Amino acid sequence: MNATVATYVWEPTTDALAARYGLPREAIVRFDVNTSPLPPYLGDVLAGSFDPLLSEYPPSDYAALVAAAADAYGVAPEEVVPTAGADEALDLTARAFLREGSVAVVATPTYAIYRIVSEQRGARVVSVPRLGPEGGFGLDIPALAAATRATAAGVVWLCEPNNPTGAVEPPERIAELLAVLAADAAAVGREAPAVVVDEAYAEFVGRSVLPLRVQFPRLVVVRTLSKAHALAGIRVGFAVARPETLAPILAYRAPASVSTVSAAMATAALRRPKLAAANVAGIADQRARLSRELDAIGWRPYPSRVNFILIQFASPESAAGAAESLLRVGLVPRTFDLDHSFADCLRLTVRSASENDRLINAAREIPA
Predict the structure, then answer these.
(1) CATH, range 44-272
(2) Residue range 58-72: average pLDDT?
(3) Where in the chain is the domain with CATH 3.40.640.10?
(4) Nearest Cα to 145, choosing from 184, 114, 171?
(5) Confidence category of residue 48, pLDDT binned at 50, 70, 90
(6) CATH topology for the 14-40+274-363 domain
(7) DSSP character for 230?
(8) 36 closest CA partner among 359, 289, 322, 286
(9) Averaged over 116-122, what is the pLDDT?
(10) For the packed helices 260-270 and 63-73, what is the interaxial angle rounded to 10 degrees?
(11) For 278-299, what is each residue's pLDDT tens digit?
(12) Is 167 strand, coil or helix?
């Protein structure tokens, strides 16, 4: 196993940032972590309508949570595995389908955890660049297929919609890739790779690749309650796939990794889809306004249909200067390392109207 594998580096805490910039904690607004500014659903829990039985372990089958997720995603209960956030689902999938010396293909730039969980399994990661801005940061299907074919990759990682670009790939394009990979594998008599589609932001575009699992059994879709449901703090996600594909994932799953309270809160939220839909609609309204206002002052927002906006600056130095100016007034953007393909960009979470107003006003004083 590679002892020098990178680990995921979390952003500084709100308290740490407040101390660094000499600001009260309440002055810090997180535009960097793509969480929701809107309140989650807590009614059942706060009303005391469930007994958490905190002295006992959660039920091993998570029957109520699984049933709620299956209904929400339009799948059978046996196609759902609850996990401690989407990240546990991603880690379990890497454990199930990668080993020392195998290969994982990643469409980049994207969420860093795909590379990390792959390398932690001793796999070699092959990056396939997405198309540029002129191609809407879409997937390069021929290049992904060629890389997978050439390396006999065990896993292909996709984030749809993609983070940090916000690019949205039509489901038929994912189907095209799945078909090519399946045909390539069949031609040489081997099993197709597991294709993992991280749909953390799926609710914002109102569609999913989940129906493709019927035709392509090696598809694994990962979902979460952290974004549209405004429940990042409870850490609940799901791996969704055909039962035969979930079997090796289940083999690596720790018992009772989702707490009783988290499971109850997630079940209640999934049973109330109109609340998540209202969150999505509110964020969409604010996203349009924020993009329009930032564009008017000379910042360059890329098109987005999710809960964040990628802003391009004239240079990496300009982006770094803008980030520091925002931080000094308590507004925390997502920045990128100098060796990142988006070093000249900042990613900004769409937040509440008043918080977005603070960002717009601060941006008017910062050159693009």
Answers:
(1) 3.40.640.10
(2) 95
(3) 44-272
(4) 184
(5) low
(6) Aspartate Aminotransferase, domain 1 (3.90.1150)
(7) -
(8) 286
(9) 96
(10) 30
(11) 999 999 999 999 999 999 999 9
(12) coil
